[in-house]
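Workshop exercise sheet. Pairs work together: one partner reads the sequence aloud, the other fills in the structure field after running the prediction. Swap roles for the next sheet.
Pair: D.N. / O.F.
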Amino acid sequence: MNVRPGADAGRRNRGRRAPHARASTRTRRTHAATGSGETPYGRQSLKRISRASIAGAAVAAATATGIALAQDTPAAPPADPATLQSQNDQLRQQLRAERRTHARSLRKARKSRLALVRRYSHQLRSSPNVRNALKVAAATYGVPESRLTRIATCESTLVPSAQNGPYVGLFQFGTPLWNATPYREFSRSDPYASALAASWAFSKGMDRHWPVCSRR
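Structure field:
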């Protein structure tokens, strides 16, 4: 039997497939497995494109909203010189009123202080026992009479029987300090005993017991 030289080769190649045919077969199998006509790589690309599109749309919407708000917000009108001048005049009037009020308060305080000094002076002149007690106490311990008078005025307004809680007398002695003086046997409301006890304490450097009035 005569066989053509190329017939054998044709039969051998009949069972083989070309490379592009094998690739087409794999593609068809992949499509059958995924149930769609797209490759997995194509689906991932579409997802990435969709996400990028959504993000871009969101940015564009936010930008448009900001521009719209900026356009809707009215700009502040320029200040009117007449309005500024009116406000300036009002502030000046308010300042002048506050100065007048402050000056009246100062005058009232000065009058009250002068009235207080006159009342204390009159009380001192009308109370010879208090005046004499302060003079005797000043001469006994060498403490200036003016200092004793000033502290007694601050403490009790020169009233021998003045009482403020546990403190009694011209110099408002408390019981512990009074018991430490040489005049503890006398009453704290006695002007002589109180003045002498205070003068004795000042001569001993015990000013700390009158922390407020001793510094005035």
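Discussion prompt: The mean pLDDT is 76. What would you look at next?
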